[in-house]
Amino acid sequence: MPTPPAPPRHAPYRTALSSAALIGAMLLGAGCTSRAERAAEAMAAGQQLAAAGQYGPAQGQFDIAIAARDDLPELWLLRARNQIALNDYAGAYGSFRNVLDQDRTNREALDAVSQLSLATGRLDDARDYSSQILALDPNNVGGLIIAATAAFRQGLYDQAEGQLKRALELAPDTESALVLQSQFAMRRGRFDQAESVLQPIFLKTGGSRDVRRQLMTVYEHSADAKGMLAVAARNVAAEGDDIANRLALARQMLLTGDRAGGAAQLNRIHTTRPGDARRDATVAMLADADMPTATLAPALATLSDPDPDLTLALADYALVRQDHAVAERLLAPLIAGRPAGVGTADLYGARAHALAGLGRYGDAARFAAAALRFDHEQTDALMARVLIQLASRNAAGALRDARIVAAENPDFAPGYALLRRALIAAGEPLLADRALFDAVNANRNDPVALRQLTAMLVANGRERDALDYARSFSLRNVASVAGWTIRGDLCRITGDNACAGRARAIVARLHGQSIPLPPVPTDERTDQNAADAADVKDN
Q1: Which portions of the sequence form the region Disordered (predicted)?
Q2: DSSP states of 384-415
Q3: How many CB atoms lie within 10 A of CB 497?
Q4: What's the predicted TM-score (pTM) here?
Q5: 367/15 Cα distance (integer angstroms)
Q6: Is-contact 418 403, C-beta < 8 A?
């Protein structure tokens, strides 16, 4: 998706007063009525506020002006420019549309609505507005690129290619045209060409967000770990403490062997914004990267002052991977000397879960009770209690708590796996297996859910079905180490040596190894991925 348009270069925020006088004269020239006066005053106030960067208060003034006089396209333009500055793209789209209702050939409004239509997926509208631009100016590069991009996304490749060719003839260095040229190369499976189109821009200036996004897509599809690392580092440099960018950088550092660098990035995330959401994001990243739990403590040891929230996140990941011993080694020193309370309920719950997984049920029960005193639905404490109840053959109690975990955490795959165990203990094997399908359907991009389901299918003699799930997952998540690892294992089980070799090579490349990229099978080309991966079975 392209970046929504910035305020036009000629937007009057820094030269507001001269245009304010002109529009004010137009308003008052219509007659010195109170409506016209109110509109002129509000418009002038809005422009002064916008020129000072106070876009919120300015918006209120523009709204007052529009309410008084909604028949002037110039007022709607001022309002739309201010909404762009506020990142209110939906509002700006409506304002620009009002401009066109009154002035169908207004170039600024046509440019804006065509870009906004493309950015928000209104592809038919994007093609319609770009055709209006091209009717006014057949050599308008922006109109050609928008028309070509919309046609490309709709599968009208011949039309898109002709428009792109014309745009590149007119302006060969236009970044948005080069991004589309890269996408065409990717569609043909030519990752080298897709990269070479954009690499000079990236090396020279770092490129726009759209350039970096496309390069990252190229590197993901070609399993180029070093390329992904370079783009991730540039994203962090360009956009500061955006959590998703910093998490992506940590992932690439860990995968390419920079344990200290990856740990430092994670520590910064958790130091800056600790809490459930950050821990969940870290666990999801580690699961997708298929990080061995044995590397967690050594990574933490590279930090002089690891944040407790990061340590808890790493322990949470060990619990997700059912490595209760690693989780306990991380948690035991972290919890020492810290009493149970609202702020430590998650820590006590995680320790309870780790202890229960190790068979230390008495200790686990004490920690779980302490956590549940302060958070009655603390997930790990309830999971610990399920394990304790299963060990004591209390199937009814285990099933009750397991259902609470699944209901309160509908996209938490380990909760469904525990529910399955409780259902089996309660004599409900059909419902038990269904729980793992529910986990996949709750989050089709969760490698933990995929691993659980495929293991169950293999155990039930359904290896081919398991491979279908893994194949679809790897098409949706082309750079997932976990996805390709699971798929490779299933390829070996089903005797598909070529598939297993390709998966093994991709996993090696995702870890930064310089080995050749296996060819992409015809039915897995980029333009076919969405269709091939669209359906997920549920039984």
Answers
A1: 516-539
A2: HHHHHHHHTT-HHHHHHHHHHHHHH-TT-HHH
A3: 10
A4: 0.83
A5: 65
A6: no
